[in-house]
Amino acid sequence: MTDTLPAHTTTRSDETWWRQAxxxxxxxxxxxxxxxxxxxxxxxxxxxxxxxxxxxxxAVWLSPFYPSALADGGYDVDDYRDVDPRxxxxxxxxxxxxxxxxxxxxxxxxxxxNHTSDRHAWFRQAxxxxxxxxxxxxxxxxxxxxxxxxxxxxxxxxxxxxxxWTAVGDGQWYLHxxxxxxxxxxxxxxxxxxxxxxxxxxxxDRGVDGFRIDVAHGLSKDLGDVLPTWAxxxxxxxxGSHPLWDRDDVHxxxxxxxxxFDEYTPARTAVAEAWVAADRRARYASAEGLGQAFNFDLxxxxxxxxxxxxxxxxxxxxxxxxxxxxxxxxxxxxxxxxATRYALPPRTGDEKQGGxxxxxxxxxxxxxxxxxxxxxxxxxxxxxxxxxxxxxxxGEELGLQEVGDIPDAERQDPAFFRNPGVDVxxxxxxxxxxxxxxxxxxxxxxxxxxxxxxAWFGDCSVEAEDTDPGSTLNLYRKALGLRGQLQSEEHLxxxxxxxxxxxxFRRPNGWTSVTVFTDVPYDLPAGELLLASAPVAxxxxxxxxxxxxxx
Length: 551
Ligand code: NOJ
Prior knowledge:
Elements: E1 22-26, H1 42-47, H2 49-55, E2 59-62, H3 90-102, E3 106-111, H4 121-128, H5 134-137, E4 141-143, E5 165-167, E6 172-175, H6 190-205, E7 210-213, H7 230-235, H8 250-261, E8 269-272, H9 281-284, E9 291-293, H10 297-300, H11 305-322, E10 327-329, H12 338-341, H13 355-359, H14 369-385, E11 389-393, H15 414-418, H16 462-466, H17 472-486, E12 493-494, E13 502-506, E14 511-516, E15 522-523, E16 528-532, E17 536-537, E18 540-541, E19 545-550
Parallel strand pairs: 1-2, 1-11, 2-3, 3-7, 7-8, 8-9, 10-11
Antiparallel strand pairs: 4-6, 5-6, 12-13, 13-14, 14-19, 15-18, 16-19, 17-18
């Protein structure tokens, strides 16, 4: 691996760096373990800064590293202004930020405002205080039904399955949209709002460049006096007036956050994780609000030229309307890795990609891994040629497949425990990264890995791919490096390809990207060949792949 910073590492200091950034998501507990306790940590990230710089990314986004009992992989936060002692200290955080900044890499951290953990000081205080107290008002408590409140206030189901209300023993119940250990906050409470402003300043003061906002569409709630049934709730339109999701008034919260972001130079950025109808996404991405929102449309689509084209056109149009830039994502810590999704037989309904495969045992044998990887490489190069920000997930640069067959006894995800037989959960994309071909936990750390790594991980390790010019790792490095040089104004022009299975577009500076979605060879247009994800022979792309040309 390189031991110096690559020439293309940039340090854009303008206010708009985020608009077309390549952002690499680190799931800290599974990235690199410096102290050998089996859990990745912040010093592990600091030790790998040269690796990150060798990728040519512009920013990292860190999933939560805060103190947590890990009831939901760290999205159950005990203290928003500290580091989990297993992951390091605040000094380690500062050292990591300095090292990343010195390498020209910006830092985005995850903020989890919809819920705290049940170990958070506020929740402990709420439990120790009576119904109607200010301590309980920071959360969403309701009286139970039945003679002594022994029945839930409503039959609501949590997103991870199972009931969304849990009793606290005195006739009251609290709402948790996710796991029992994740009580929802009451954002109508001024103290809650102020505390998060404090948290945003706390990390901004430590040099953080931006924030990823978890469940951004869930904060504002208006439950009313009489709770609807689950059936009624599910049938209500999500048009801004739903009691729980995507309420119009949630943007009042983000308008306050924007004022904090703008106290800094350059202004701190934010990206919303908001699972809302596409036409409501722009509100989260507005300049008066968070500024940018995740667009998961490509992630949810099959590998299909027509689907990709309409998604791209639609989202570029939306970005133009909102004044923001769009975002693209194929993989993250919540979904089956895209190299595996694309290796599966076509789905028959609109089930989650990979869901049925995981339930059936997640065997590698039923995957066409080679096809999945060729498609994933093509998709990523297409993504990196698009205007907007590209969010990449750790391990995808290695072409890593999902680990589908984790034994039940080793699973960690609450979605697995709360939904037996229905959801296997998300552990398979969170298995600690392989850094070396062999050795303890494939170089992740000396103390083993907190999720089991399969034997085939070594072949996809950084060591195995680092010096192989044809590896997926080196494809990412070249593509990201070129993207840094070729990036131009935020639009594209579609080119006529004469085929339904081929997409081609040109960026304003002559950078052309051609993607073939099938194994029918395609004669490439004239131009200097810059990079190809698949073999090119006699001027033709030989099958599934993406090629970049300069006209
Ligand atoms: C979205 C996060 O990406 C996911 O990992 C988490 O479980 C939920 N939000 C709840 O915080």
